[in-house]
Design goal:
homodimer, 362 residues, alpha/beta, Lyase, Ornithine Decarboxylase, Chain A, domain 1, TIM Barrel, 2 domains, 9-stranded mixed sheet, 8-stranded parallel sheet, 10 helices, 17 strands
Amino acid sequence: MRLEQVDTPALVLELDAFERNLKLMAAAIAGRGVRLRPHAKTHKCPEIAKRQLLAGAFGVCCQKVSEAEALVEGGVADVLVSNEVVGAPKLERLAALARRARIGVCVDDAANVRALQAAAQAAGASLDVYVEIDVGAARCGVPPGEPALLLAREVAGSAPLRFAGLQAYHGPAQHLRSAGDRRAAIARAAQAAHQSRRLIESAGVACPVVTGAGSGSFAYEIESGAYDEIQPGSYVFMDADYARNEWPAPLARFDHALFVLGTVMSRPSEQRAVLDAGLKASSVDSGLPIVWERPGLRYARASDEHGVLEIAAGAPAPALGDKLLLVPGHCDPTVNLHDWYVCVRHGVVEALWPITARGAGY
Amino acid sequence: MRLEQVDTPALVLELDAFERNLKLMAAAIAGRGVRLRPHAKTHKCPEIAKRQLLAGAFGVCCQKVSEAEALVEGGVADVLVSNEVVGAPKLERLAALARRARIGVCVDDAANVRALQAAAQAAGASLDVYVEIDVGAARCGVPPGEPALLLAREVAGSAPLRFAGLQAYHGPAQHLRSAGDRRAAIARAAQAAHQSRRLIESAGVACPVVTGAGSGSFAYEIESGAYDEIQPGSYVFMDADYARNEWPAPLARFDHALFVLGTVMSRPSEQRAVLDAGLKASSVDSGLPIVWERPGLRYARASDEHGVLEIAAGAPAPALGDKLLLVPGHCDPTVNLHDWYVCVRHGVVEALWPITARGAGY
């Protein structure tokens, strides 16, 4: 089937661009002494995770136990839940999963460490446990320094849990538009991670891994020397929001590989076309989608099931029934709206990859 | 199971409030000479549609062919797709569906009418076809007046299509905060609909039904006398965005019946709690969720999997593991993130209703 025959709205993965992005990331980290653990919260798809592993990734990460279950079920053997997991039902599931694969998880609370230990003991499983430190995101995590040491000791003394190191991710830094601002934010994060690690190790507790970083900042985490592992997710797809970042050399510039295909379902006026892809097809939390390679067409408004396009004076206007590609504003929640990727190469559908962790929020 | 035992994030339907909303709507239209065709794009759930029908609705509407398929499959016998349907695959499916149920659809283009006619003929099916007029929304639809008459004639002459009337929905008017502004916008819409109908009927074409209206404006469509049928959707759930509207008497005030249940998964500081429900659990396109009945807690920021709550000085702070209810900012796209409703009465789970049209965007 050709792309033009695919019914809409559809989530389209351009395989050539996707594969270039995998290679670009492998090249960016080659010889830099860090390992790659891509974030599968972005794609929620074991088929993609397996290709990341083939391209050199050490393992993957995700945010939810149910995502980890879908990844392990799909054949992934090493998954870090880069997030806290709270509540007996989830801890039970996590511990059960740790009997089938190497599983990591983050903590920022001593009582949660004890609950995790109890769940692991009950399941006869062991887990890698990372202490999350807040390196500037003001979300989860203990403060760097003494609180990190205290919690690391708690974990290290809680067999069958293994203290695996520090989670040090600075989310808001990913979208600072200026490269200088991102570099400065990550320099502060890296310093906090580095000092926490030294404090922990000088107290006699081995701290094997500092992990973190995202697609907008990973070059700076690598540059800092403080990180052993990076967790970029969006690089495989490259959405419109990340494209608004400044990407100066030598930062890897990724290609747009993820699109939403929509059909023009109404042409009510010279200046207006309406697409059948609204905010239930492409998440608008980080801005509207961009119309791909159709100069003069602007996605101006999204409602639930409609996207209103403005047609600039003199621009080639789309006809009723025409299909257009959109670059989503934010890839992660857009993927979570769809059940499969329509994988396309040179305009021909090559595969459908199910998004098996779609809706896996638990 | 009690509500506190439900794992999170979960989409919760408070049955008492939901049933009150059904009754309130029935009371609001009783004796007013309009029929109720609730919008199922909001809930995507045949179980809810059937309860709306039992509460007096004439049929339901939706926006997509795949939603209509899910509704008919779930036992609903009368569905209006209140939207244009473009492209052979969708028209084929729509026509096939019209052999199993009474199906309506909207048009705003003559070529689309011919394609619809061909699909209906090929399937041996007939459909109710409504001409959509643009009454102020600046989205789909032909202008009121002559263009509506021209297209109505086209439909009326295209057996086995039946010209069923006019679709006249003013979307943006739903969220005008001032009741006076909403009344004025709907007065203009109603006048456009009324004049178009007169023009069509004076040309000898019967125009049986004018349909439209939403939860924010239906009282004014009823008041206008120009509408035979109203299409409110959100009234069954009442989200945070609609709650910001001014609802003066005698407008029906609906209760919040839809919630997202989240767990406190981190308590990194005195002033901050982090919930496991972010923008993949509650859509933020129309504003952040509201924390329900927990004074002093404010949902301040959403990221993909996290909601950051600010705790006011002196407010009762939630503990790690506590579960909180959120009123979603916008109900329709929030429902589309979940696979089932956890239906609760007096704090006890009474049923799970599958959201069978979740992700049905085709």
